[in-house]
Amino acid sequence: MRLFRSLPRLTLALAIAFAGAISLPTNDRADRAYAQSPKDATEWIKRGKLLWQRNDISGAAAAYQQAANLEPKNSKILTSLGFLLTQQNNYSAAITALEKATKLDATNAKAFNALGFVYVRIKDYPNALTAYRRAINLDRQNIDAYNSVGFLLTEQKNYPEAIKIYRQAIAAVPNEAKSYLNLGYVLQLKGDRKGAFDIYNQADKIAPFNADVLVAIGGLFADQNQTEEAIAKYKRALEINPRHFSANLAISRVFQSQGNYVEAITALRTAAAAKNISSSNAIELQKGIAALYIQQGSLSGAIVAYRQILDIDTEDAPTYLALGQLLASQQRTSEARQMLENAERFFNRQGNIDGLAQARKALSELK
Q1: Cβ(210)–Cβ(177) under 8 Å?
Q2: Please, which residues have CB within 8 angstroms of residue 212's CB and are 6 or more apart in sequence?
Q3: Cα(72)–Cα(142) distance, integer angstroms
Q4: pLDDT in tens, 290-306
Q5: What distance in Å separates the CA atoms of residue 37 and residue 347, rounded to the nearest whole number?
Q6: What class has domain 209-293?
Q7: Burial (0-12, 13-18, 19+ Cβ within 10 Å), 200
Q8: What confidence tens digit (pLDDT) does each residue in 148-203 have?
Q9: What CATH homologous superfamily does 1-122 map to?
Q10: pTM of full prediction above 0.85
């Protein structure tokens, strides 16, 4: 199971709020504004916003830098600049801009929030915690900051403090289900299943149509081998969101434990069809599908799943090896050899000695 919090997103809307309510030019006026050389910070901000909306991050950063040069004591401009530099992964420059913003305006909660985000990116967790705590002190309803602190404390296995911060988040914003989910997760890590169950049920009351909450409750039932109760929660989650990744993955595992491979595969395929699914999740699902096909003796289905993985990651050496071995078992020697040679090449490139030995052994056994 994972924490349901996510670090604050760096968005154009936030940056616009930082820099002030300035209307953007549109259409021909936008192009004319872009072509002109701005004479003051306001014009540079207009240009920066326009470029940001066009996803020209480097151009937008350059524009905000010009604005900051003209108004070096404007904390909001520096905060926006810090956001843009973060999107460019220029963390050192982003920290410089954001720290200056916080020194110019010690009440700029958004700058502290952004600073915490950057410190997390460079794995400087002590400074990240300090920045997020400052953001909380300035904005007691800053749910992103609470959850970010909780996440960092959980990563450090400081469960008592993580529990404390999540309870503070719930007290500050009682209707935010994410905080309940995170608290329940940490309680589970501590072995307090009853406490976790109580918290998840509280979340269910304030957010009865939250699929994440239902999956969390289902997970507790599944851990206690209360299969029917777990399936009921997962199905309810899937009624709300038929392509919910975690719900489909969880119910698939229950079906698999029951030997119901058809339903298990169907659930994984549904999850794989979700929009905007990450490559890593898609690969995880296809590997699960392949394993299920192999368990029920349907090698052709597993081969299709492995090929779909290679469509996503053309250098996945373990998949080349598994696919080559399956093809070899079907006497499809030419195809098997091609897959195993790819496995050998990529294992060798990665310096994976064990994988390389397996690929070479499989090649030597080809008839």
Answers
A1: yes
A2: 4, 177, 181, 237, 246
A3: 27
A4: 999 999 889 999 999 99
A5: 53
A6: mainly alpha
A7: buried
A8: 999 999 999 999 999 999 999 999 999 999 999 999 999 999 999 999 999 999 99
A9: Tetratricopeptide repeat domain (1.25.40.10)
A10: no
